[in-house]
Design a protein that fits this description.
about 60% helix, 10 helices, globular, two-stranded antiparallel ribbon, mainly alpha
Length: about 190
């Protein structure tokens, strides 16, 4: 992930206790994830460019940089333009082992780019456009979803109950739970291991 400095220290007992309480990982898993994180990122901080490089490895056929930058912003809880191990493992815990509601909460934060508590059509369009660019031609889409605009229009028609061109958290959550493609996308990272 990174290529600065070098440090091989382990998590302290206190840090481990805290992370066991905050995540859905056990002590051994946390130690393995931390060991890999420090090995790949000796500076102990992952910046946007390094994060994008990771996404490129998973999506070599498309352009994943824009989507990776949106995900980076949700991982970077304290908004210091880097992701430390705690931010990384807490986000990974939600995306890989969280309940449907926790994953939907995380996804809502991803789509709510300006953090105003609602998702506007344009915000969702930016994310969906970035996803389409990332997956490239790997996925064959139905005709009514073969462009980001068509997909977002379809989602808004199904989710935007009061037709005000923005989704509240409740509208998003209820609509997403009725959409099998969103539920399966939320399960994408379920089998991730260190």
């Amino acid at each position: 992930f990174c290529n600065m400095g070098h440090s091989g220290s382990k998590l302290s007992k206190q840090e481990l206790d805290q992370l066991v309480a905050q995540t859905r990982f056990d002590r051994a898993e946390l130690q393995r994830w931390h060991q890999n994180f420090v090995k790949d990122c000796p500076s102990r901080k992952l910046n946007l460019e390094e994060f994008q490089k990771i996404y490129r490895q998973f999506f070599p056929a498309g352009d994943s940089d824009r989507f990776a930058s949106f995900v980076f912003n949700v991982f970077d809880k304290n908004h210091d333009n880097s992701i430390d191990f705690t931010e990384f493992i807490c986000a990974l815990s939600i995306t890989s082992r969280g309940s449907i509601d926790e994953k939907l909460d995380w996804a809502f934060k991803l789509y709510d780019i300006n953090n105003d508590g609602k998702i506007e059509f344009g915000e969702m369009l930016k994310i969906i456009d970035a996803i389409y660019k990332m997956v490239g031609n790997l996925v064959k889409l139905p005709e009514d979803e073969d462009t980001p605009e068509k997909r977002v229009t379809k989602l808004f028609e199904s989710m935007d109950k009061n037709k005000d061109q923005e989704l509240t958290y409740e509208e998003f959550k209820e609509g997403a739970k009725r959409d099998p493609s969103i539920i399966s996308a939320l399960s994408l990272y379920d089998s991730l291991t260190a």
